[in-house]
Amino acid sequence: MPDSELQTSLLAKFPYLTPRPGSVDHAAVNVPPSDLVAFTKSLRDELKFDMLTDMTACDWDKDSPRFTAIYHFYNTSTHQYLRVACTAPDDENPEVPSLVSLHPSANWFEREAYDMFGIKFSGHPDLRRILMWDDYKWHPLRKEFPLAGHEVELPAVDVFEGSRTKIEPAPMAGGPFVATPGKTMHDAEPRGKDQSWSETNSKPANK
Amino acid sequence: MSSTKEISIGDIAARSSELSDDLPGEKMMINMGPSHPATHGVLRLKLELEGDIVTKCDPVIGYLHRGDEKIAENMTYNQFVPYTDRLDYLAPLANNVAYAIAVEKLANLKVPPRCEAIRVICCELARISSHLLGLGVYGMDTGAWTIFMYTFTEREKLYSLFEELTGARFTTSYTRIGGVARDIPEGWLGRVETFCEEVIRTIDEVDKLLTRNKIFLDRTKDIAPVSKELAIAYAFTGANLRASGVAADLRKDAPYSGYENYDFDIPVGTVGDCYDRYLVRMEELRQSIRIVKQAIAKMPDGPWYAEEAKKVFLPPKAGVLTKMEELIQNFMLVTEGPQMPAGEVYFEAENPKGALGFFIHSKGGGVPYRFHIRGGSFISMGILPKIVPGHYMTDVTAILGSLDFVMGECDR
Predict the structure, then answer these.
(1) What are the start-end ranges of the E strands in B253-339?
(2) Which residue from A20, A59, A147 is facing B74, i.e. has the nearest CB?
């Protein structure tokens, strides 16, 4: 049951907000990027949503606008959650204002969202990858990134130069992954997602 | 700048002082980890030292990154349960419960009271197991090796109880969406009660060994204090937040799984230093035992899975082998997954390492469209660059131990 009382009062107070449909639990609003920082500041200082407890992003694949940053604020005195979504207008170079100046916890969240989705957070003091290594080329949680991964050189340069070891895509055949909609049965099967091991593409020999 | 470049590979300390001009001789770069016993897993800290004092700390994480979120977006809700074991692998039962409740919120499922009580016992035993290990290694980090042996003995007993309940000691995968995998075995509750009596004696002993130990006090008191405001700003949760003086506990504030029916206290620290974090965990152990005892005393009868969860819960095997309807049900659940309504849900559970949150965006069907895990350990570590500088190199292990994180949950 969404917290509709909070949602209604927020929508009345801040004209730039729009309701975010589909929430089954907490109040949820959409905020345009230009008002995100101001809105978060009033949330923190006036409405006492003092904790940015979680932040992530979502890739809508073929839809445009493509990237949405999703924040969960927590009020430590009334124990309410609030979901705030902020959609980046540009699909090619998605950019959302950073909240690090208001919530230091946003530092690592935004670094993770940048790492996984390639969303830029303008004003972030130290926006670099956090889970993947610095030279990694892709953003793994984007929908077009294959489940098996891409072949890539070992990040330890000295080891790679000596051994030419590469990180290979994971084998999918026989894996636990489920059938997804596809044109043919073969496309739909888990091995349809396979990058390296299948009938048409044999496993690369260990170099 | 020196002209010799004869440095060995990986010797960052030598390399940085050789190569950079702005680092005078006194400053030194030290790589702590990724394989260092005090980093509790594969954490790497890039430390800049001036003499023995840390001036800069840059945690490098991701060595245990397995892409759990990507994996979750490619499998059905039921299939992801074993993956939750591997988040905070020191309290897998609590992760199972948190995940199950998050998906049940999406599916709008209510589980029967017996299931809720079993889950509460699971969560609290997981907390005891996690805190026992946390205290043991914390003692070890600060030079009190004996504690580890004491707490590990108790943890071993607990793992035998987990094995009896779930079939596995470590990777339990006990919950199902809409219930738990099986009912509690006969006589198990009695054995849990005996364990509670035994563990309380060990906790008392650890208490006597550590709490007023001069060396331990010197190593932990006034080390890395985190103020109330700082703790909230850095989104601390769980014992770390309470140690800073914020009486926040999701079991009280946003009760789930029937926690509102149990009587327990929330220990709160005063200054939020390493010693407070230790004290809060010690008291939480006792409170968890209190909850387990209450849950055992009023364990309700009845089914351990939601009757209306037919569209989610795998039917009993005997039924699958003899009845057509159950067979079809089983087939559809395995191939297409439980059909969930479209919607967004975010649920946080009070786990031993802080709040474990799950955000699910569902477009309907058996596979989540977006699945996000909020790992309490990931967030507790974001504060390291803020609190570590200014402390001695030897304090770094105490700070890491007191924050009690686990890399499985941090890197996901």
Answers:
(1) none
(2) A147
